[in-house]
Design goal:
Oligomer: single chain
Largest sheet: 5 strands, parallel
Number of helices: 8
Order of helices and strands: EHHHHHEHEHEHE
Strand order of the largest sheet: 3-2-1-4-5
Helix content: 40-55%
Strand content: 5-15%
Number of strands: 5
Shape: globular
Length: 196
Amino acid sequence: MLLPLPPGDFRAYLFDCDGTIVDSMPVHHLAWRTALDEWGCDLPEELFYAWGGRPVADIVVDLNARHGLSMPVELVARRREDAYQSFLPQLTAVPGVLAHIEQAYRRVPFAVVSGSTRESVTASLTALGLLDRFDTLVCAEDYARAKPDPECYLLAARLLDVPPEQCLVFEDTDLGVAAATAAGMASVRVPPPWQR
């Protein structure tokens, strides 16, 4: 089923990746639990979803503060990414978003605009056979300020050579929708897994 789109004549579609194109949030939560287990650290599912869209390093820092731990940020991030990669065969696409990708492919350019690393985004899209659909990828390494700052979406619009007001953003988090709005872009809110 297609997600309803806002009115407008859009010349580019910009997609968040995790939880938007790829139904990867349950898999990411499992990867977090696997990575944090060594330190006896818990990341409850409710908090995990509340923190959706935040950079990995920020999450580790906040977990350290909450639990009085000193987990090494880079090591936890690497273990989380390794665990995620091992779970790639479990990934599926978000049906309502996949339908828009299939319907609009080759009619308008597409970009992925993600807070995840290029390694993670590329692996997820490759696992689903979708990587070749996207004209450009804007990943965590490509910009300095994370969502809700509009930097990542403005960069994607510039790379596609489409004015921001003619871009439509697909997002699953409050931070992502706020970033799109701050960039002057319309957005489609992708519902969480339990509402689809």
